[in-house]
Amino acid sequence: MARDYYGILGVRPDASAEEVKRAYRKLARELHPDVNPDADAQQRFKDVTAAYEVLSDPQKRKIVDMGGDPLGNGAGAGGMRDPFAGFGFGDIMDAFFGAATGAGARGARSRVQPGSDALIRIELSLEECNTGVSRELTVDTAVVCDSCRGSGCADGSAPEVCDTCGGRGEVQSVQRSFLGQVVTARTCPVCRGLGEVIPDPCRQCGGDGRVRARRTITAKIPPGVADGMRVRLAGQGEVGPGGGPAGDLYVEVVELPHPTFERNGADLHCTLRIPMTTAALGAVIPLDTLDGSVDMELEPGIQPGTELMLTGHGLPKLRSSGRLDGRGDLYVHIEVEVPSKLDARQTELLHELAALRGEEDHSLATVNGRAGGFFSRLRSRPR
Q1: Which residue segment(s) compose the domain that 315 sits in?
Q2: Which of the residues 83, 102, 258, 381 has the least number of beta carbons within 10 Å of its own beta carbon?
Q3: 85 and 125 belong to one structural domain
């Protein structure tokens, strides 16, 4: 015959999970062996504890309501099995120390979870990296549902304690082995570990508390950013489940190539091609930089491959803290262009120049076994 577990605890068959726990806690305080050493009280304590184990487990309680006895095959002396076999220690602690009850009391995770970070890439020219820029960005992220305001419930409804796990977020199963009974716990498949269910979910978000939406935000990119750097926009990422706090949005810079300058950190490099006459005579040449035109002086006789530095005409130096720390430099690399085609007059003038400089003999090697060619004279010229 099936035992009357409801009668043992003194509750009605339609008692809620909270009423069952309250009745057990009251009886356990009265009958615990440390409080009441009487032999009958000890047996009743075992019976009460076993009854609570059955009625606090939704699956076992269903067996009782159908007229069965979930402990019928495992009864020990006195008609009840050992009440602590497969019984969570937390239930005993709940009885004497008054642990929290309801959804989440058994370790169920919160429905409200923080959101994930998001990433978006933007292309910037070298000029925009130099000055910084404010850019309007269109992002597609999860936002709080404006219908349920993140609760996930339809108007007039609220979450309810999960009947399967009793609000604990997990269900237990008992398996017998040669070592005894093994109790295992797994996430409740009905509430997915939340300890509660939404019987009437919001029509707009389906109970998630958030929806996807496209919105426009302003991203302020500071001067000195470089390719691959990320600018963090706090709280502009994905809203979490249940309307949880939003993550961050990271704006990653993709720097476009520049037709004139090459970048090395905060420094810039460019190549300046000048005629051979300019290289020989020198000149003051206007040079376009990122900050405007500057006059650059070329000394007479400047050689190909010469590197000139214009201090402070590079990019802003952006520190890790986001503050600026001066500017880089601009390095100008000189290339000398030699004309490939000359008219008659130009050829005549160059011959005259060569004669004046003693460079009219252009032989590159010895002639008839005698030294004294062009390179020989260069080697013998005093330094």
Answers
A1: 262-337
A2: 381
A3: no
pTM for this model (two decimals): 0.60
CB atoms within 10 A of CB 240: 22
Number of domains in the chain: 4
Single out the residue of 205, 242, 246 nearest to residue 115, CA to CA: 246
Contact 185, 170 (CB under 8 A): yes
Tens digits of per-residue pLDDT, 245-293? Answer: 999 999 999 999 999 999 999 999 999 999 999 999 999 999 999 989 9
Domain containing residue 78: CATH number: 1.10.287.110
In a domain, 130, yes or no: yes
Surface-to-core class of residue 258, CB atoms within 10 Å of its CB (0-12 exposed, 13-18 middle, 19+ buried): middle
126-159 residue pLDDT tens: 999 999 999 999 999 999 999 999 999 999 888 9
- Residue 237 and residue 219 in contact, taking contact as beta carbons nearer than 8 Å: no
Q: Does 104 map to a domain?
A: no
Q: Check residue 364 and give its pLDDT.
A: 47
